[in-house]
Amino acid sequence: MLRKMTDVDVKEGLKVILSRINEACKRRTPELESVEPRLVAVSKTKPVKLIIEAYEGGQRHFGENYVQELEEKAYNADILEKCKDIRWHFIGHLQTNKVNKVLCFPNIYLIETVDSEKLATTLNKNWPKFGPPDSKLKVMIQVNTSGEEEKNGIDPAEVCNLTKYVLNECSNLQLDGLMTIGRFGYNPEDGPNPDFLCLKSCRDEICQALDLDWKNINLSMGMSDDFEHAIELGSTNVRVGSSLFGFRPRKVRK
Ligand SMILES: *Cc1c(COP(=O)(O)O)cnc(C)c1O
After folding, report:
1. Is-contact 61 109, C-beta < 8 A?
2. Which residues in the chain land under pLDDT 50?
3. Topology of 5-184+193-245 in CATH?
4. Ligand 1, atom 15: closest residue by C-alpha
């Protein structure tokens, strides 16, 4: 039987995910007790109707990974009217020639995928033209923790340099954290996910080298299949799509 995309009960799904997040928090070490992980609802390929339902259920942070799709949603009249406090996270690969487009989107909140000085420079230079006066654009540095060639993100060995660059040379950017996608299909029963451990050790490294407080550096890691595991390992920003919005057919890439 064919399942319609709009058949899911998003509000109910949201409650379930939030309670699973809550339970996972209880399994963490005491040093993480004060940290509340943020849920980013990944709405890619999903209709506006479901975004509004999730928003009405209390969800504020949403993630999209294609510029054009985010454009359609960010400017959607119903979203603008009903979701005034929506916070968009851009979680896809961002080409520098699309930066200006993304920076004008209403309610753009955070770019999770900064992985080069070039991109940081472009974001930094252009944000003042689009953002509120004297504001800073929040960014995360995306790390390729699995070393897979097809994955975007900077090499773990380069994270410290890029962090230093963002902090010292990009006065219009605010470093919000580090982000990884990690290898697909890792089974947490095999032990702590090495990608998550790697991202955490990148954070330790930059905090030590640059004298930063780790509590100010978010770790964006964990998706539908492993967000609880990621939280147990210190994630503060989980990006959950299909577990919340229902099954998502794979996008056919042209
Ligand atoms: C699609 C996507 C997600 C969510 O994936 P699910 O497995 O559906 O939860 C998270 N992060 C990124 C970068 C994505 O592209």
Report:
1. yes
2. 1, 254
3. TIM Barrel (3.20.20)
4. 65
> What percentage of the chain carries pLDDT values higher than 90?
88
Q: How far is the CA of 133 from the centre of ligand 1 (A)?
A: 32
Query: What span, in angstroms and rounded, lies between the C-alpha atoms of 230 and 201?
Result: 14
Q: Return the pLDDT at 249.
A: 64
Q: Is the CB of 224 under 6 A from ligand 1?
A: yes
190-215 residue pLDDT tens: 999 999 999 999 999 999 999 999 99
For ligand 1, whether the C-beta of 199 sits within 6 Å is no
Question: Strands, E, within 67-199: which ranges?
Answer: 87-90, 108-114, 137-142, 173-179
pLDDT of residue 150: 84
Question: Reduced to 3 states, what is the DSSP secondary structure of residue 65?
Answer: coil
Query: For residue 206, what are its two tokens?
Result: 């930059």
What are the start-end ranges of the E strands in the chain? Answer: 38-42, 61-64, 87-90, 108-114, 137-142, 173-179, 218-220, 237-240
- The one-letter amino acid at 139: V
Give the atom of ligand 1 at the shortest distance from the alpha carbon of 112.
13
What pLDDT, on a 0 to 100 scale, did the predictor assign at position 1? 47
With a 6 A CB cut-off, is 65 part of the ligand 1 pocket?
A: yes
Tokens describing residue 75: 């400017």
